[in-house]
Automatic annotation (TrEMBL):
UniProt GO molecular function: ATP binding; nicotinate-nucleotide adenylyltransferase activity
Species name: Sulfuriferula multivorans
Domain Cytidyltransferase-like: 6-187
Biological or metabolic pathway of the protein: Cofactor biosynthesis; NAD(+) biosynthesis; deamido-NAD(+) from nicotinate D-ribonucleotide: step 1/1
Name this polypeptide is given: Probable nicotinate-nucleotide adenylyltransferase
Role description: Catalyzes the reversible adenylation of nicotinate mononucleotide (NaMN) to nicotinic acid adenine dinucleotide (NaAD).
Keywords associated with the record: ATP-binding, NAD, Nucleotide-binding, Nucleotidyltransferase, Pyridine nucleotide biosynthesis, Transferase
Documented EC number(s): 2.7.7.18
Taxonomic lineage from the root: Bacteria, Pseudomonadati, Pseudomonadota, Betaproteobacteria, Nitrosomonadales
Gene Ontology BP terms: NAD+ biosynthetic process
UniProt keyword annotation of Transferase present: yes
Catalytic activity: nicotinate beta-D-ribonucleotide + ATP + H(+) = deamido-NAD(+) + diphosphate
Pfam families from the UniProt entry: CTP_transf_like
């Protein structure tokens, strides 16, 4: 059974770094689908400045036309913090115990994994696939990673083709096209009244402009 990719993010706004990660991981790991799950109230950072309905809409516009990409709004409706372990548990309840699930993370998110709520339980619910990200070269991961996470990496390291052999519990790391794009940079660019064109899809930029998001005073 092909794995289903789970890709959570604040997506404030979604950009080509996110979309290439999802596309290249879907191809390399032969994912059936990738579920984009915008965070409601993320546990680890200040509340996103942009309303969830705008972030959902921008993801919807960005992934339209890609038959493998799906928008999943289960986190934004939550009246509380959205913890990934709970999101994966709810997906597991829906999809059954045998369906391989694969949580997609950029390297920066992976390096912070031990700070996540019940992080060690994540491996019982899904595989984890880590994409390289500019600024976080793999040669520095070992030093940047707590010893407990390094032990998990060594014990669980697998190849993409192994992900169909179990429903959860394996770790893969993949180089992807290095795009040094961040939502922070896009927000800063817009607030400075400069153009972020070609860092994100035109439909998303059109939406941002039509809805006057990321203005200098916001
Ligand atoms: N350019 C990129 N290359 C690889 N992974 C990325 C890239 N941008 C984001 N990601 C990954 O996508 C996921 C969601 O990221 P997020 O929505 O926080 O985007 P961001 O650009 O890092 O945002 P911000 O600048 O607001 O922190 C995370 O796992 C993150 O590591
Ligand atoms: O569950 C947690 O404790 C947890 C802590 C930090 C981040 N996450 C999730 O990781 C994903 C990427 O986060 P971010 O900040 O890079 O957008 C997003 O889905 C967050 O909800 C989850």
């Amino acid at each position: 059974m092909k794995p289903i990719g789970i890709f959570g993010g604040t997506f404030d706004p979604i950009h080509f770094g996110h979309l290439r990660l999802a596309e290249e991981m879907a191809e390399a790991l032969e994912l059936a689908t990738v579920h984009f799950i915008p965070a409601g109230t993320p546990p680890h950072r200040t509340r996103p400045r942009t309303d969830a309905h705008h972030r959902l809409q921008m993801v919807q516009l960005a992934i339209a036309g890609n038959p493998r990409f799906v928008l999943d709004n289960r986190e934004v409706g939550l009246p509380r913090l959205s913890f990934t372990v709970e999101t994966l548990a709810s997906l597991r309840d829906e999809l059954g115990t045998t369906q391989p699930l694969c949580l997609l993370l950029g390297a920066d998110a992976f390096l912070g994994l031990t700070t996540w709520h019940r992080w060690q339980d994540l491996f019982a619910l899904a595989h984890i696939a880590v994409a390289h990200r500019p600024g976080f070269p793999q040669s520095t991961w070992k030093d940047a990673m707590p010893e407990v996470l390094r032990a998990e990496l060594e014990a669980r390291m697998a190849h993409p083709q192994d992900l169909t052999s179990a429903a959860a519990g394996l770790l893969v790391t993949r180089p992807i096209t290095a795009l040094d794009i961040s939502a922070t940079h896009i927000r800063d660019t817009l607030r400075a009244a400069r153009s972020p064109r070609y860092l994100l899809p035109n439909v998303v930029l059109d939406y941002i402009q039509a809805n006057q998001l990321y203005l200098p005073e916001n």
